[in-house]
């Protein structure tokens, strides 16, 4: 529940009272006619988790799968909404395309898919992409969820390399 903090103006400011901090919220500040200040609500940093795998690894698979060093992966208690950031460098020695997506397991089950992935079409040898993709999820099951990066090469027969892999998940509540 929300408490009330009262500030009283004068030579300085006196803070009295307590506030129970909600997970997320707004702060409302009201000044009364008698120079008393009332603050309701509070700000709180969202729950988040981050993981990185710097190792450069390759694969030639048309389906989303793990690299030799799986991940990165994070486990986070979430509500029904989360913001996922996936980031990496993708390169190839020929014409192809590669994708870094993510799967969710635990309270939720979501398979890696192109519509929620970081993808790069590689038109010629030596061209690479370093980028980040943000994906808003709004259909999670609240609870402990594990977000694991997954990878694929569009052709399935030409290998793509992935390096400096990063995943960050921010819980947005329900």
Write the H/E string, N to C.
EEEEEEEEEEEEE
Q: Count of DSSP E strands?
A: 13
Note poorly predicted spans. 1-7, 11-15, 18-23
Q: Structural class from helices and strands? A: mainly beta
Number of helices: 0
Share in β-strands? over 45%
**Helix content range of the residues, please?**
under 10%
Shape: elongated
Cα-to-Cα separation, first versus last residue? 17 Å
* Biggest β-sheet description: 5 strands, antiparallel
Mean pLDDT value:
80
Radius of gyration: 23 Å
Can you put this structure into words, describing what you see?
The chain has 174 residues and is mainly beta. 0% of the residues lie in helices and 53% in strands. It has strands at residues 5-8, 14-17, 28-31, 36-40, 48-53, 57-59, 73-78, 82-92, 96-106, 118-122, 128-137, 143-153, 160-171. Strands 5, 6, 8, 11 and 13 form a five-stranded antiparallel β-sheet that branches. Strands 2-1-4-3 form a four-stranded antiparallel β-sheet, with no helix packed on it. The chain is elongated and about 75 Å long. The chain starts with a strand and ends with a strand.
Short synopsis of the structure:
Helix content is 0%, strand content 53%. With 174 residues, the chain is an all-beta fold.
């Amino acid at each position: 529940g929300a408490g009330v903090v009262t500030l009283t103006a004068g030579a300085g400011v006196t803070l009295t009272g307590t506030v129970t901090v909600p997970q997320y919220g707004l702060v409302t500040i009201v000044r009364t006619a008698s120079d008393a200040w009332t603050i309701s609500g509070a700000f709180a940093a969202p729950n988040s988790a981050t993981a990185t795998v710097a190792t450069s690894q390759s694969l030639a698979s048309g389906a989303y799968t793990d690299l030799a060093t799986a991940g990165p992966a994070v486990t986070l208690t979430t509500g029904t909404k989360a913001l996922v950031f996936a980031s990496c460098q993708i390169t190839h020695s020929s014409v192809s395309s590669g994708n870094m997506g993510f799967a969710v397991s635990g309270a939720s089950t979501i398979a890696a898919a192109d519509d929620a992935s970081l993808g790069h079409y590689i038109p010629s040898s030596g061209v690479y992409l370093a980028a980040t993709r943000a994906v808003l999820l709004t259909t999670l099951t609240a609870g402990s969820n594990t977000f694991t990066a997954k990878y694929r090469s569009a052709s399935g027969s030409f290998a793509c390399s992935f390096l400096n892999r990063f995943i960050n998940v921010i819980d947005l509540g329900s």
